[in-house]
Amino acid sequence: MELKIDTKEKFTVVSPILIELTVNIAAEIQEICLKLLEKPVKNVVLQMEQVQTIEDAAAIQIAELQQQFYEKSASFVICSLSDSIESTFEKLEIIDFLNYTPTESEAWDIVQMEEIERELMDGDDIEFESN
Description:
This protein is α/β, with parallel strands linked by helices. Helix content is 50%, strand content 18%. It is globular.
């Protein structure tokens, strides 16, 4: 397996351990992450520290995967992008749709903030229904 998976309390860190992210590896990431959406801890941080290049089709797959998470009220944050990977996302004009941070620690913060936001929004729905 070309991925390291580390489960935390509120999220799972998925880390590709290769220097190139191909379409096949992106498909493997997608398969693993979609299975995580069915678990109680469904938020994902994609740690890209080892990855130096990404195929265009793989970049698009990752962006689509992030959208699937947000549609299911789960967080998907990418962290530690190399300059070349960030350039690929920019070239494909999908960088603005991604939730990414410079460090894993900042990605954890985003996941926690989004969790709080979802809890508050759910609380508003309940309050609204009772009025």
